[in-house]
Design a protein that fits this description.
The chain is mainly alpha-helical. Helices cover about 80% and strands about 0% of the residues. It has a two-stranded antiparallel sheet with strand order 1-2. The N and C termini lie far apart (about 55 Å).
Length: about 220
């Protein structure tokens, strides 16, 4: 195994560990809704960074690994929760990483993340309609009544927040990794600009405020 593959495996393992840690500590937060218990989960940030660095297949592998460890260690929803986690993360990271792989610029990253957010919102509406009654025991008509007022805004806010944080930290992180010799020059095309940073910071603050309102905190 050459040194490039060793560095890639080490990097994906590190990002997977960060994703798991983010997921674990997010479980300490109160749920957005008591039924079903929706909580913000930041693990997709680290998984999409892995996808930006090494492509969509790497992001899928990270998603499966982190979700499987989550099911074994802390999850109470079993295989259904595992499936929902993988579907949700892959719906977000696959289109974003695939687009960025073709267009490795700030514009490509933004377009990929926006399409990723739209994808996860649409796909999770369908999957919540199908799966949520199975593990909550709620009648399907109750779940249908929650799709637009609960699931849609939750996934939109969650996806937008994860996308905005990714835009804030990806380039500084990749530059730091390049200086450390963990990434070659070719893996770090394009540089963040002040406008992107400020827009991403504004999006993060806005999403957090909306999430707090959604939770009834403010």
């Amino acid at each position: 195994m050459d040194s490039r593959k060793i560095r890639m495996i080490a990097m994906l393992a590190m990002l997977s560990a960060f994703a798991y840690a983010g997921m674990y500590f997010s479980r300490l937060l109160p749920p957005v809704t008591p039924m079903p218990p929706l909580k913000y989960d930041p693990k997709d940030i680290f998984i999409i960074i892995g996808g930006f660095l090494y492509g969509p297949l790497a992001a899928v592998a990270m998603s499966v690994l982190v979700s499987l460890i989550e099911m074994i260690t802390v999850s109470t929803t079993g295989p259904i929760g595992l499936l929902m986690n993988i579907v949700s993360t892959c719906a977000f990271v696959i289109p974003a990483a695939a687009i960025y792989k073709k267009k490795r610029t700030i514009t490509g990253a933004v377009i990929g993340l926006v399409i990723g957010v739209v994808s996860v919102v649409a796909i999770m509406l369908l999957w919540n309609y199908i799966i949520t009654p199975l593990y909550t025991g709620a009648p399907r008509e109750v779940v249908v009544g929650m799709l637009l007022p609960v699931f849609l805004p939750f996934n939109l806010i969650k996806g937008s927040l994860n996308a905005a944080v990714t835009m804030l930290i990806y380039k500084p992180l990749s530059l730091a990794l390049q200086k450390m010799g963990m990434l070659p020059e070719a893996d770090n095309k394009g540089r963040a600009n002040l406008g992107v940073v400020l827009a991403s910071l504004f999006a993060v603050i806005s999403c957090v405020l909306v999430m707090l309102v959604f939770m009834g905190v403010i």
